[in-house]
Amino acid sequence: MRERLADIARRYEELERLVVDPAVIADRRELARLGRERAQLAEIVGVAREQERVEREIQEHRELLGDADPEVRELARAELPALEARAVELERRLRALLVPRDPNDERSTVLEIRAGTGGEEAALFAADLFRMYQRYAEAHGWRIEVLSSSPSGMGGFKEVIALVQGDGAYSRLKYEGGVHRVQRVPVTETQGRIHTSAVTVAVLPEAEEVDVDIPEKDLRVDVFRSSGPGGQSVNTTDSAVRITHLPTGLVVTCQDEKSQHKNKTKALKILRARLLERMRHEQQSQIAASRRAMVGSGDRSEKIRTYNFPQNRVTDHRINLTVHQLDRVLDGALDQLIDALATRAQAEALEAPA
After folding, report:
1. How far apart (Å, rounded) are the C-alpha atoms in residues 316 and 306?
2. Which residues contact 37 (CB under 8 A, 6 or more apart)?
3. Distance from CA of residue 110 to its chain's centroid?
4. Measuring CA to CA, which residue among 200, 178, 183 is closest to residue 121?
5. Which helix (H) or strand (E) segment is 26 a member of?
6. 141: left (phi over 0), alpha (psi -120 to 50) or beta
7. pLDDT tens for residues 293-328?
8. Is 234 left (phi over 0), alpha (psi -120 to 50) or beta?
9. What is the pLDDT of residues 150-174, one digit of tens each?
10. Closest residue by Cα to residue 316 from 290, 344, 293
């Protein structure tokens, strides 16, 4: 660990020099990248320096235990336990900080929720999940903005895409990516039978312009008239926007806003997030949180979590944790589940070979 800390200290000093280099300052993308790296290393360097200081004090106090003056010996003996306890705590913090961090953790996030198997009932549950995340975001002081939506006939969502803005939004919500299964009696069921439906959730870190540069020549922008709910402007103006990214074939459509400009801005946010996730997946194929791995096919069998209404329970299958408070979870009380998932992820990272 000492060698690794020394390497980090050297890199931090190098970054301190680079971020004030005029050539780097002139390059927005490089400056942003180096700034993020420096911020991630700053806490490690600070704790390591404090640990070195405490260890020096411990050594000095141990030497004072052999001092000729009994008062000096007694003072050293009295202060030593607190210093040793502090050293143990700093060692624990350093080990936790040295766990490889997801560079996207402090970003805002693009949340995509889609109805899977189950027809209208799946669409209704997609709306339930969206409300759950809205309430969770509100509890954490995050702002949530709908970027695109496709309502169903009974008030659900075939698809809803939202931007969740706030410090650490991605670090918490990234554990929500996958297939969510619901077991309940649908409002459309006349015989009282329990049905099983599925909804897919994808969680993508928000991409900034400096992260994903999209030349205009790589885009085809089509405008058309909006359809579905939306007020008086629907079907009267060409406000809906469909953007095709020519190199990858990715297509994003937005028609929620009455303004063509606003729809285009939202569509570009979604496109950048998807491109960033695509780049990340290509560069680090081992990352299990890639978008395709998260959403699977939307089949009921590819579940990460089950919401069972008759039993008032929520079960996360990745950590075999069951909570008998389904109503509270759907009201945004997700921290118990997310904390457990984050703890397991950290434990696995600590056990992984360097």
Report:
1. 7
2. 15
3. 9
4. 183
5. none
6. left
7. 555 555 544 689 999 999 999 999 999 999 999 999
8. beta
9. 998 888 999 999 999 988 899 999 9
10. 344
